[in-house]
Structures are given as structure tokens and as C-alpha cells.
Amino acid sequence: METKTMNIKIEKAKTSKIDKVDFDNLAFGNVFTDHMLVCDYKNGSWNVPKIIPYQPISLDPSAKIFHYGQSIFEGMKAYKDENNDIWLFRPLDNCKRLNISAKRMAIPEIPEDYFMEGLTALLKLEKDWIPQTPGSSLYIRPFIFASGTGFHASPADEYKFIIAFAPSGAYFSGKVKVLIEEKYSRSANGGVGYAKAGGNYAGQFYPTQLALEKGYNQVIWTDDNTHEFIEEAGAMNIFVRINDTLVTAPTSDRILDGITRKSILKIAKDEGIAVEERKITVSEIVEAAKNGSLKEMFGAGTAAVISPISAFGFRDVDYDLPEIGDNYASLLKKRITDIQYNRAEDKFGWRVKV
Ligand SMILES: Cc1ncc(COP(=O)(O)O)c(C=O)c1O
User: Ligand 1 centroid to 17 CA: how many Å?
Assistant: First the structure.
């Protein structure tokens, strides 16, 4: 990626925190690197981004982010290979999706070159923070929020675009037990479910807490209208293997168009696996679990990669999934991570060298 066209000013941190980090025992997303990229939207346009030391942000109490939740984000990762080369996975798709979210939330779109060149410059500066321990990576969090002020319920006139990094280990430790939700909804037709809008996640916290109290790790959301169809999980799209066919729900304005999801569909087809994008009813899954044709369920997303589901709960009954040797989850996880970490040929042209 080129970084010539824009002169991104870099203010370096006086000291680095890197020596205090235990890279062999990284949790997910709670250690941050030394610098961040900041770009302000004022007077109708985005200013050239700058890189500054990682630090708190000062905001007016009437900033619209606090009152109306005008905020969007992305989640992506940078990977370091054996030769210390740095790679991104389909980064333009994240930029495009951020702007799809921006449009829906009446936030001004970020120019693609600000996103890509800003990200590249920050990655080059923070390259020593990219972990090389197996399963670890540098989690990248680009986000935009309304910093403009006023209690009037209308879009702000000022925004901040920030990119921050967190060297991270696995999102889930161990197998995941999910609860199929019938009461609460994550999103609705005509709503903002397809956007990575902050409020989409806040709205999930309470129902997810209830599920955690019952011993589950995640909620599987069903459609808001009938609660008959499974849609996706907190930060993952959901795949179901019935006999040898891999099925996932079609994207809609209620479901996030996951980059991992669409990559898995491509890889699975490439492996000769029968793939279906179609509506999946809860009763179909329950029936398949009962008659043994439900072979696997897994979640797919940048943070968790591919997360096998060990059991699902529905109407106070738990259905265990079998442990099968030659499972699709392991095969697909290996294929996608081998591309991400530059361990295999990138036949679809997804990898981008930094
Ligand atoms: C609601 C939701 N669904 C699915 C995903 C998976 O998307 P991706 O594979 O692009 O990370 C995410 C994470 O971004 C998410 O927040």
C-alpha cells in the first residue's frame, strides 16, 4: 500500500508501554498500543488525519454521541508472518462497510484514502505491537462518533474518526454454548442491524447478561417478526451444518454482512462443500439435533474467527452437538487463517501487505 499522497503528521509518544505487555498471555482488546490515528470532521469536511500518542479524549457534555448514540465502528486485524511482514485481510471491505454504517447513521463518510493510508501509517509505526504468538493478532478498531454539541435531536456538525489498536489473543476461550432468543430482538426490518452502530451492541447487553446467568456464552438472535428464523450472534454470523451441507442465513437489513462469513462461503465452495444461503428455522435445527443430522454449528467473525458451538439452548432444553473429527469448522478456520497469516496461497486476492 502506498503512503505517499498524504502527509500524515506523527507526534510520537515520549515513552513506550510495550515492555509492560505480556504478549504470551493476551486477552482480547484490553491492552492498547502507544499511538492512535485521529481525524476531525469540521465545517463540512474531514481534516487530514494525524497520529498522536494514545490518550483520553475531551468532549463537551452535550456532544451528541452521549445523547443520541451517533457512533459506528469496524473490527479488523493485522497479522504478522514468520518473516515479520504485516498483512491485512480484505481491509477495503471494512472501509466500505464503515461508510455503509455512516450513511445509515447520518454520519459523513470517511474518504477511502484517509482510512487506508491512515491505517497503514499507524501500522508501520506500531509494527512491534503485532503479536506473533499462535492465535494472536493486532485487533484494529476504527470508529467514528458525533463530537458536535447540542441537545437538539439531530445529526451533529462535528465528528471524530479514530483508529486504535489492541494486541489480542482469542475472543472466546473454549467452546461456546448459545441460547436461541425468542423474546428480545437485536434488529428489525428497516432498522440499523446491518450497520455496525454502537447502539446495536448496547441493546444486546441486557438479554446477553440474562443468557450468561443461565450458563450460556452468547445469544443467537432470531428475526424480530416471528422469532422463527435464526439470524446471527452478538458479533458473529452463524453457520449450521446439516448432514454435509453448510447453511447460513442470507444477509438482510437485520444482519451484518460479515467479511468472515462471505470468505467462508467462498472457501467452502472451493473445498467442494455444498453451501446454502437461506433462511433457517429454529424448528429445523431442533429437529436436526434430535434426528442426528445437525453435525456442527459455528460462529464466524473477525474477532472470534471461527468459534465452534458445543450446545444450544431453546425453550429450556439444551441440545448438545456431537464432536466430529473431520469437522468443517477446523478445516475452514485453517484455510482462512493460513491466508490471513500468509501461510498459504491467497487465491482470492484477499491479503494486503502493509
Ligand atoms: C453483529 C455482527 N455480526 C457479524 C460479525 C462478523 O463480521 P466480520 O466477519 O466482518 O467481522 C460482526 C463483527 O464484525 C458483528 O458485529
Answer: 30
| Rounded CA separation 59/65 (Å) | 10
- Are 26 and 131 spatial neighbours (Cβ–Cβ below 8 Å)? yes
Sign of CA dihedral 28, 33, 302, 159: positive
256 lines ligand 1 (CB under 6 A): yes
Q: Which long-range CB contacts under 8 A does 335-341 form with residues at least 24 apart?
A: 335/267, 335/271, 336/260, 336/263, 336/264, 336/267, 336/305, 336/306, 337/305, 339/89, 340/77, 340/79, 340/87, 340/89, 340/137, 341/79, 341/80, 341/81, 341/87
Backbone angles phi, psi at 176, to 5 degrees: -110, 130
CA distance 111 to 88: 19
Number of other CB atoms surrounding residue 110 within 10 Å: 22
Q: Is there a contact between 84 and 170 (Cβ–Cβ < 8 Å)?
A: no
For residue 259 and ligand 1, the question of a CB distance below 6 A is answered with: yes
Give, for ligand 1, the residue of 185, 256, 265, 350 to mutate: max count of ligand atoms closer than 8 Å to Cβ.
256
Per-residue pLDDT of the chain (354 residues; tens, 9 = 90+): 334 457 899 999 999 999 999 998 899 999 999 999 999 999 999 999 999 999 999 999 999 999 999 999 999 999 999 999 999 999 999 999 999 999 999 999 999 999 999 999 999 999 999 998 888 899 999 999 999 999 999 999 999 999 999 999 878 777 799 999 999 999 999 999 999 999 999 999 999 999 999 999 999 999 999 999 999 998 899 999 999 999 999 999 999 999 999 999 999 999 999 999 999 999 999 999 999 999 999 999 998 899 999 999 999 999 999 999 899 999 999 999 999 999 999 999 999 999
Tell me if residue 2 falls in helix, strand or coil: coil
Please indicate whether residue 307, judged by its CB atom, sits closer than 6 Å to ligand 1. no
Index of the ligand 1 atom closest to the CA of residue 234 = 1
Query: Ligand 1 atom 2: the closest Cα is on which residue?
Result: 235
